[in-house]
Design goal:
With 70 residues, this protein is an all-alpha fold. Helix content is 86%, strand content 0%. The chain has one domain.
């Protein structure tokens, strides 16, 4: 989960930097900026979901291995 959270944070901070640059100087066309925004959003969601599912799987496996779950 830690790696997933760090990746999501890095993508979010990078997108915020691109958004601020776009707000002030507009180096990208609107369709390209929209595609970057959508891509960043999808990456954050997918990485977050994969990290959560992986964490739950590992926690469940650890509990089964230690006989906490039947």
């Amino acid at each position: 989960m830690k790696t997933g959270a760090i990746l999501c944070l890095v993508i979010t901070v990078a997108w915020a930097a691109v958004a601020l640059v776009q707000l002030w100087w507009q180096p990208l066309t609107n369709p390209i900026f929209f595609k970057l925004t959508l891509s960043a959003l999808l990456l954050v969601v997918v990485i977050g979901v994969v990290a959560l599912v992986t964490r739950e799987y590992v926690a469940g496996k650890r509990q089964r291995d230690q006989d906490y779950l039947d």
